[in-house]
Amino acid sequence: MAREQNMTKKAVVLGIDIGGTTSSFGFVEQDGTCFAETTIPTRPREPAEYLVTSLCKRAREAFAPFAAGHELKGIGIGAPNANYYTGIVQRPINLDWDEEVPLAELFHSQFGLPVAVTNDANAAALGEMKYGAARGMRNFISITLGTGLGSGIVVNGEIVYGSDGFAGELGHTVVDPAGRMCSCGKRGCLETYVSAPGLCRTAFSLLAERTEESVLRAFSFQALTAKDVFTAACNKDCLALEAFAVTGRILGVKLADAVAHTSPEAFIFHGGLAASGDLLLVAAKRSMEENLLSIYRGRIPLLLSGLQGLNAGVLGAGALIWNEIKL
Ligand SMILES: [Zn+2]
Question: How far is CA 299 from the centre of its chain?
Answer without folding.
Answer: 24
